[in-house]
Amino acid sequence: MLSYKHGYHAGNHADVIKHIVLLYLYNIEKKTNKSISYIDTHSGNGIYKYISKYMDKNKEYKDGIKKIQNYKGNNILIKNYLSTITKITGKNNFYPGSPIFISSISSKKDKLFFCELHNNEHNLLKKNLNKYTNIKILNTDGFDYIFNKVNKEKNYFVFIDPSYEIKDDFNKVQLILNNIDNLFSKSKIIIWYPVLDILENDTFLQNIRKKGISNIINVEVPIMKYGDNIGMQGSGLLLINFTNRSIMKNLKEVINEIQNIIKQEENITRSKLRYL
Ligand SMILES: C[S@@+](CC[C@H](N)C(=O)[O-])C[C@H]1O[C@@H](n2cnc3c(N)ncnc32)[C@H](O)[C@@H]1O
């Protein structure tokens, strides 16, 4: 039985980066696609209360959303993320998960599929999203789901956010990447990963580079010195089949700005943005 609960980590530095980029890319997709088919393979339960035994335990949100929530700069992606949170939460004291972020900005014509394997989290997600009518919530394995559902005829927007509690999650990600040029060739995919061990991280990225995928952008944001520390030293995203011309410029600006706000040490490696 797996014990990962996103509640312990919600609103941390990795959530901030992934949700800013997710919102940005979904909003771009809305401009050209009147009915988006969206799949969140690892949904979590959608609502994370600050005052709860989970978020209160390690208070990871203090190094994430709390550092950025009073942002006074001009970056439009950060401002949009913060105003979306305010719209969703109102006066309620919680951090939204990816299903609520996307449900709240989706059009009624979009079709949203949320997979969550764990029964309790799945039941909570159903309760937390009950006001949305364009969604389907599935108590199923998100990796299996996309292999059955996605096909090369149709454009899906897929968000893959595993916990990597089991190493096999990294292998499943490689399997998806092996199928980009056939099964997923029309789809846009975002894959999140943690930087836990710098050598393993290098190997992970080198193996991806060797696949020769034609359009894969890698974003990585260190928050502390790689190698000197244990635990999650940063996090990254693989963005596949996103072709909008302004993406690289906008992502570069936003990740540099986020890194400056949420870094936990000085003189760390700069954030990375590149085609793999
Ligand atoms: C990192 S959390 C997701 C956080 C969420 N995407 C967000 O941004 O708010 C990963 C979730 O995936 C669930 N999970 C783990 N393995 C899964 C699988 N194979 N298929 C679907 N859900 C899974 C876990 O129970 C957990 O709730």
Structural features, described:
The protein is of the alpha/beta class and 276 residues long. It has one domain (6-275): Rossmann fold (3-Layer(aba) Sandwich). 39% of the residues lie in helices and 18% in strands. It is built from 10 helices and 10 strands. An 8-stranded mixed beta sheet has the order 5-4-1-6-7-9-8-10, sandwiched between helices. A two-stranded antiparallel ribbon has the order 2-3. Strand 6, helix 8 (168-178) and strand 7 form a beta-alpha-beta unit. The longest helix is centred in the first third of the chain and has 20 residues, at 13-32. It is globular and about 45 Å long. The mean pLDDT is 95. S-adenosylmethionine is lined by residues 4, 6, 41-44, 97-98, 115-118, 121, 141-143, 161-163.
- CATH fold-level label: Rossmann fold
Q: Please give the alpha-carbon distance between the first and last residues.
A: 35 Å
Strand fraction equals 15-25%
Question: SS-based structural class?
Answer: alpha/beta
Helical proportion, percent range: 25-40%
Total beta strands: 10
* Quaternary structure type: single chain
Mean pLDDT: 95
Largest sheet: 8 strands, mixed
**Shape summary:** globular
Number of helices: 10
- Across the major sheet, the strand order is 5-4-1-6-7-9-8-10
